[in-house]
Amino acid sequence: MRRAVCPGSFDPIHNGHLEVIARAAGLFDEVIVAVSTNYTKKYRFSLEERIDMARETLASLQGIVVEPVGEGLLAEYCRQRGVSAIVKGLRSSSDFDYELPMATMNRQLSGVETVFLPTEGHYLHLSSTLIKEVFTLGGSVSDYVPRSVLKRLLAGGSSSD
Which of 32, 35, 49, 124 would suit a FRET pair with 70, their CA atoms being 20 to 30 Å apart? Predict the structure, then answer.
């Protein structure tokens, strides 16, 4: 079985993420959407909420598993889960410049390859940070996020984790 991981904090998951995950599902037998927590970041949604939103949103896709990454290195997580590739979406050359050193380190640490998928043009501007900012300032984000995310944003979401 060819297994890949799409890691991220997904705070919140948005349509750009979904597009990359769906494309990865067409390339691999199983795609693990690995929800991470960076303890230096402040999250709008708790880890549990981020996992729930991803599961609700991705339930209709075959071969998708959503789980927390847990503690430690992504390379070690990949080794433990039998992952052959990390899939990352790229919006711009600055994403590539940021991701390339990590891809090289992950390959050297565990042998896992990183597959870069260019994001579709109509999602190039999306980031979870921008979505949260636009929403907080009263703008509509309904075209950019799945219903489960919009529902939680409108309900106030949490600000924990």
Answer: 124
